[in-house]
């Protein structure tokens, strides 16, 4: 008889959610996690809670308060002199947020009777793993089903070798002990823009080098264009078609060489350089291939539509299988898989996946863009509402951006919603729910929205699809 019904390898947003849901469904579950926090203690929550989503949002929030007080408090009649930022206190708050949430997961494991195994897991056979503790101790465990949920790690590039002092990855960028006067960022994706925004608000001169010729090429073009202009206005120096060729530490500086849009060699000198060029699957040390689990050329664990590998009792979810590398995607896969293991027929819709970039204002979207619909030959109508016309946004003093709703020209079914503006991440949920329920733009147009709210902008965008927007 196996030690457990299910063993989950990895306690990130996919792994811990899968473990809890399996336990709720009556299975005997263990979850293995190897991550050690800066104090050397085992910590649950994976990249998201420890060194990703949560700490970055804590710093974004702190830096936003500081920036708002310095730049905009006076507009509200609030007079503040000699404003300063204590970086150590800001980082301590960030660490407390992380600690409380990771301890919360430990409490959820106890509540749901999930056995916590601390250490690195590797396959011995298809139904047996070995867990190696930080002290070097080893213990083997068997399970009827094993779920790989080991997530991803930052991608490094040879031209900018990480030294964790001057050239850092996204993890290192969360722990600068002082504000760099000049900060370089390689990559203008979500991570680069968010981390660049944090330190820009605190006073860094930030240069972001993006190899692609388009800003946020996956986003709606009008949204991306508006966001690019606003972020540049805030002080982010975003260079497109800038391909980094070399980065080296010279004294206490980093000399970064890159080719510009014309192919000419350029150089910028910074005090710190963040490398944020994406993430790659984390399968190191798993020994999965040794038991026959198929791994793709890019290093992802290969699974079918139900997240089962080619080894019948081994499954995988989250970043390690590819697709959108998003915490909420991993969590939903964890729930789906747990319920399927319990005999349910749960499915997951990847075409209705919310995306958010937590700049200020935020960038968020769900569904398809105009460009995608044009390429597919699908006729559509667009409703666009400027945040400038929102009474609540004006009261906030945050009028940058817009809401764009795209609906099928024949059926009126909502095909995509794209936002750039204050609280875009929260406003997006209405669009996600509407699309999940196959709603039309008319459904939202006929739905009463409270006044004054930012959500009225969604209502106006829906009205605009049919050319009857009221307030703009």
From TrEMBL:
InterPro entries: Class-I_Pyr_Nuc-Dis_Oxidored, FAD/NAD-bd_sf, FAD/NAD-binding_dom, FAD/NAD-linked_Rdtase_dimer_sf, Lipoamide_DH, Pyr_nuc-diS_OxRdtase, Pyr_nucl-diS_OxRdtase_dimer, Pyr_OxRdtase_I_AS. Disulfide bonds join 48-53. Signal peptide: none annotated. The keyword Disulfide bond applies. One of its GO terms (biological process) is 2-oxoglutarate metabolic process. GO terms for molecular function: dihydrolipoyl dehydrogenase (NADH) activity; flavin adenine dinucleotide binding. Residues 4-334 form the FAD/NAD(P)-binding domain. NAD(+) binds at residues 187-194, 210, 278. SUPFAM superfamilies: FAD/NAD(P)-binding domain, FAD/NAD-linked reductases, dimerisation (C-terminal) domain. Its EC number is 1.8.1.4. Gene3D superfamilies: 3.30.390.30, FAD/NAD(P)-binding domain. Its cofactor is FAD. Transmembrane segments: none annotated. It is found in: Cytoplasm. FAD binds at residues 57, 150-152, 319, 325-328. Residues 353-462 form the Pyridine nucleotide-disulphide oxidoreductase dimerisation domain. GO terms for cellular component: cytoplasm. The active site is at residue 451. The keyword Nucleus does not apply. Keywords: Cytoplasm, Disulfide bond, FAD, Flavoprotein, NAD, Nucleotide-binding, Oxidoreductase, Redox-active center. Its main location: cytoplasm. It catalyses: N(6)-[(R)-dihydrolipoyl]-L-lysyl-[protein] + NAD(+) = N(6)-[(R)-lipoyl]-L-lysyl-[protein] + NADH + H(+). Belongs to the class-I pyridine nucleotide-disulfide oxidoreductase family. The active site is a redox-active disulfide bond. This is Dihydrolipoyl dehydrogenase. It comes from Beggiatoa leptomitoformis. The lineage of its organism: Bacteria, Pseudomonadati, Pseudomonadota, Gammaproteobacteria, Thiotrichales. The gene is lpdA.
